[in-house]
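Re: How this chain folds, sequence and tokenised backbone to follow

Filed under: protein folding, tokenised backbone structure, sequence and structure records.

Contents: The amino acid chain and a row of whole-number tokens, matched residue for residue.

Body of memo: The sequence and its backbone structure tokens, given next.
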Amino acid sequence: MVSSQDEPLFLHDDDEVTPTEYSKGFWKILIVDDDQEIHAVTKMALADVIISGRQLEFFHAYSGSEALDRLTEHDDIAMVLLDVVMETDDAGLKVAQAIREQLGNDEIRIVLRTGQPGYAPEESVVKNYDINDYKTKTELTRSRLLTTVFSAVRSYQQLCTINENRRGLRKIIHSASNLMEKHSIVNFSEGVVTQIASLLGLRAEGIVGARAPHKDNDILVLGAAGHFADSINKSLSTLNSDEIERNVRKCLNEQRHIHTDTATVFFIDGQAHQAAAYIETKNIVAEYDQELLEVFLANIAVGFENANLFEELQTAAYLDPLTGIPNRAEFTRCLQELSEKPDKDKMIAVIDIDHFSDVNDGLGQDVGNLLLRAVALRLTDQLGDKVFVSRISADVFGIYGPVNIVTPNAFSELFALPFRAGEHYIPLRVTCGFASAANPESVNGKGLLKQVYIALKNAKNNSFDRYNYYEPSMEQDTQRRLHLVRRLRADFANRKLQVWYQPQVELRTKKVVGVEALLRWPQSDGSFISPAEFIPLAEYSGLIVEIGSWVIEEACRQINAFDEIGLPQLRVAVNVSVPQFRKRDFPELVEKQIEQWGIDPKRIELEITESIVMEDPDLVADILRRLKQQGIQVAIDDFGVGFSSLSYLQKLPLDRIKIDKTFVNNSDEKSGKIIIETIVDMARRLGLKVLAEGIEEQSQLDYFLGLDCTEGQGFFFAKPMPADQLICLLQKQMSYS
């Protein structure tokens, strides 16, 4: 096989090849033959061969089964010189079949050799098993053997490059399909390193770096491969390589590719975002590869820009742009994690700044924004790293952390001193709700958030200390209220609510001169839900405006019905809520009903409370004057219980004062008599009529008769009743007169 005249083909070309960093190592050659002499001769013939800067390393097998063992142990064998006939006549062919089908190795090159030409493989075998060459052993002189090996190794190298290129491309595509994931930019950048290295036929050893956000002097490693893999998401300086840092900075600053003796740094121009891909290589990029790389880098730039954009969008989705701390979505996500692993040592809280809108209204939104930043800064600085702080709505902060830190006392101390907002030092009061993280796993993150909000609302409504801890009973009460609101809305829409009437009588004659319209909510079992319970719910839900308008309409309709059957001309008193009075067109709505039913405006008396007056006295006075111009009467209900100033009595166009039943019940006591007599005397001097509510005993009636109080109302005379019962009562009164 070896001749002194045989010169190794391409040997001189290979001698001129300078080994590169990538070239370190060997091309692995497997010799499979049952003749030991063939092994020795082949190895000697190829001993000094260098292909693409790499020498050959030989492995040996003396049977088909042993060949498969070697191939299983080494998946990077470049070629196999395979004897066809060994322990069986087709042992080599079975090895070739196993390489392609069982091992799934389509890169290794197979060269069949045989000393018995009669056992040549069929054409289908060469085609199906991708046989690189087939030679008889007598044909393989040294020069021919070199030609065969050189061709096979080159073919193997090209296949590896193509497959590596495909793998890198798949990684880019996979990264692009997952750009919305948290670390998508990392996956994408790692794929960039792999793909560039693959295109150049190199191992993936390198990094992708970019300037860190808001830190112009810092370079952040976005992705890395090879021995740089541990540097991902770290500063470039952590690599402890002045050369790498210098060349990456130079690439970014000069916006061009940088070539050195040991690496190439590729500039990736993403317009808004630039990056540098540092690849370890001593090879200078061949001219014919330049255009391919430029096209590739242009596509990479677009992908890199999109990856950064999605990363920024994801960050924005979980970060409050005003304060720079996590937002509601991130707070809810963290609570979801807490709910999956309940922790009795963690406490959840929400902090609501009281009357924050006054800052925006009085000092401007810019000052309000500065104030929110100041609050966020103090919370994060003073509560420490163990506490999670977020802004979950305009002036509400969500917090969770150790139970010994997240406490009312800690928050009280945090808000003890004013906050600086520009030139202003602004003191703040807060209301807090707390809930333990030691909840059953059935409560998810949104459920935990609901619990702290329930505690917050309870603190606002019921707590003198301005904080409260969540209790299951709070949620039960809330659920019951919401259930009642839904039922109330449905029953009102289905016209199930009723208006009852309680007579108002002239005390001396006990003649009914008026009635008060009272709302009733009947249930299917014949019971009634107390107005003291459902009226506040109607006000809370905003339904009171619609219900109040309907009661006025029903009162006007009933007056019309009374007149049609010839009953005495009674006045009907209707209670008006605060939300109704806030509507500036309220007088027009009343006037419309009066005109629609064709009744005398004097027959309608609107009862307002002191709380309505004190909310906006000027607005109330204006609305009452407009009502009085129509001829409608106005009464102050529950007079004296609001502890308000009496000065409004001089400003408001009133007709009647109703003494609250609380005072009536105390009419047998000296202190009670003093208050009642003062009210009656004051009303007489102001020219106002007086009606005493809640008269239930003869002694109370006698007392008010002695004061010359003209009218009264209470169970002593009659309880509230439906309209048909009132009609019967009035008809009896007419028959007695």
